[in-house]
Design goal:
With about 280 residues, the chain is mainly beta. It contains four helices and twelve strands; from the N terminus they run ββββααβαβββββββα.
Length: about 280
């Protein structure tokens, strides 16, 4: 854990004895505690740097954030960010609801590969129940496939623990879309459609957002066309939008529709995606 000096007050005493982590030991004139200290062990809490000191010697003994130039906590980064400077809440690039916090729906600095540049990267702005993509979708990891699918799908014991691509839905969403536990469902976004086995679970709870019920579909992202166990890829559903600062993929949350049954094949599969794009399915 970084900044464990912050667990002690300016005098070096734990903020909480019950949860004490590191502290200044007056007898030994050194810092001690339950963790590996990430700052100078012999710098006392009352240390005051010389005016011409540099680097860590310029930080006082009560400044806990040693990786910052002034040793203090920062509410925002003063330079180097494409957005900010203060953090704020944005809805994802795709969302079934309007932003309840401010008028800006999503991050305007997001680096998007727009449909003008790539026709297959269409991103709807869903904000009402009549939209053909009424549900939230999110991808996530599985403990059994702890690295990545290309590595874990060739390990027999991991495949025994998680043998097939699946989607997690609440009992309420299962009833709404006539989904059966262990059966098949199709998951459709504005870009693609995949199929997955249905796992009905109370772990995914419908949310009340402004008086409207919003359902979430959970998808692990490990499956693909190669390996000892194969299946449709959740990543096929995702759009292309990048974090504005480090350009990491920023579309772990999307919107989707979810009819029961297996997806079609061939041209019919493409036609189903296009009908949803045009809003003629799911209304």
């Amino acid at each position: 854990m970084l900044y464990n000096r912050a667990s002690a007050d300016p005098d070096g005493a734990p903020w909480s004895e019950r949860k004490r982590y590191v502290w200044w030991d007056e007898a030994s004139q050194r810092w001690t505690g339950e963790d590996v200290l990430d700052f100078q062990l012999d710098k006392p809490p009352n240390f005051t740097p010389e005016p011409d000191a540099v680097a860590e010697d310029a930080l006082s003994g009560s400044s806990p954030f040693i990786l910052q130039s002034d040793g203090k906590a920062w509410l925002f980064a003063p330079s180097g960010l494409a957005d900010g400077p203060l953090p704020t809440f944005y809805e994802p690039n795709e969302s079934p609801v309007r932003n309840p916090i401010n008028r800006q729906q999503d991050n305007p600095a997001t680096d998007r590969i727009r449909a003008v540049e790539n026709p297959d990267n269409r991103s709807p702005r869903a904000d009402d129940e009549a939209d053909p993509y009424p549900f939230a979708l999110t991808t996530y990891r599985l403990t059994e496939h702890h690295t990545a699918g290309a590595m874990s799908r060739v390990v027999d014991r991991l495949n025994e623990l998680q043998p097939e691509m699946f989607c997690e839905v609440s009992p309420q969403l299962a009833a709404l879309r006539h989904l059966e536990n262990g059966g098949w469902a199709s998951i459709i976004t504005s870009r693609a459609v995949i199929e997955a086995r249905v796992l009905v679970t109370a772990r995914i709870t419908p949310l009340d957002v402004g008086g409207r019920v919003v359902h979430t579909v959970g998808l692990p992202f490990y499956w693909g066309s190669r390996g000892a166990t194969t299946g449709d890829s959740a990543n096929d559903l995702l759009g292309l939008a990048l974090d504005p600062n480090v350009h990491i993929q920023n579309t772990k949350a999307q919107t989707c529709d979810m009819p029961s049954g297996r997806r079609p094949e061939g041209r019919d599969r493409l036609d189903l995606v296009e009908r949803h794009r045009q809003g003629t399915v799911g209304r």
